[in-house]
Amino acid sequence: MDRAGDLQLSQLQLFLRLAEAGSLSAAARQLQLTPAAASAALKRLEATLAVRLVERSTRSMRLTPEGELLREHAQRALGVLDDVRSLLGGQRERLAGEIHVAASSDLGRHILSPMLDGFLARHPELRITLHVSDNLHDMLRERVDIAVRYGALRDSALVARRLHFGPRTLAASPDYIARCGAPQHPRDLAQHNCIALYLSGRPQLQWTFTRDGQSLTIKASGNRRADDGALVRQWAVEGYGIVYKSKLDVQADLDAGRLVELMPEWRCDEIPLHAIVPAREHMPLRVRRLLDDLVLRFAALGGGDAATVPI
């Protein structure tokens, strides 16, 4: 039997992956282990500590009270160890390890991905996995370190840092406008093909406009919907209809003339953009440095602030 002194970092890393994923097979995949090797490592950890850490059933695994206690302290210990390793690289910080970042499809591909290039160039020992999807990620179960999300958020287990605050915009391609005309009033949208984002199981069809203190919400309609914001934008660029999107997502298309802003005298809803992190006692230095870098880069775009607020 292993002695307490034989406790290995790899065993703690596996245990934390298991705790986050809720599945031994998922933890094994993340660490590139076979399920048999992962199971054996977990058993050795339990033997070393002489406690049961996980309650197993045919369908799921959950932590015992002892497992929850180990999870709390192991997260803190491994995070501190990562920071020490980073700071022992001489006068210059040496950031190493892996960071998982999640973002919506348009934002991830066209804005966030280029921002990550410089950070990776400065820290070549880092690995960044970018999860691009308009579906919301379960950060605690899916091991996401930073999620960049639009909109108001409500989750007591997370902390939000605002990156940007700006309006949506109504836009269509020059080809669509030439064929179908341009709406002059929000009510005119009833005669136009509106392309909607399908989010959280429902199409986003309530489009709000404000002018001279008057607010008007219309229900958009059209023959195209998608759960991928990048595809919604692409359809608009290709001339299939009108979109109501964050101006940040379509600014490059507006600048290039691929899309044209419609009814500029009517202001669309403003929408915040946050960087979301789990509300843990210790944030690894590599995650903290990336978060600070993103705040600076989005501030350069305008419309952001560096406030950190609980959700």
Task: Describe the structure in your own words.
The two termini are 46 Å apart. The chain folds into 2 domains: 4-87, Winged helix-like DNA-binding domain superfamily/Winged helix DNA-binding domain (Arc Repressor Mutant, subunit A); 95-311, D-Maltodextrin-Binding Protein, domain 2, CATH 3.40.190.290. 30% of the residues are buried. It has 311 residues and is of the alpha+beta class. It contains 10 helices and 16 strands. Helix 1 (9-21) crosses helix 3 (35-49) and helix 1 (9-21) packs across helix 4. The model is unreliable at 1-5 (pLDDT under 50). Helix content is 40%, strand content 26%. The longest helix is centred in the N-terminal third of the chain and has 23 residues, at 65-87. The protein has helices at residues 9-21, 24-30, 35-49, 65-87, 105-122, 139-142, 174-180, 229-237, 247-256, 285-301, and strands at 54-56, 61-63, 97-103, 126-132, 146-150, 158-172, 195-199, 202-203, 206-211, 214-219, 224-226, 243-246, 260-261, 267-268, 270-278, 308-310.
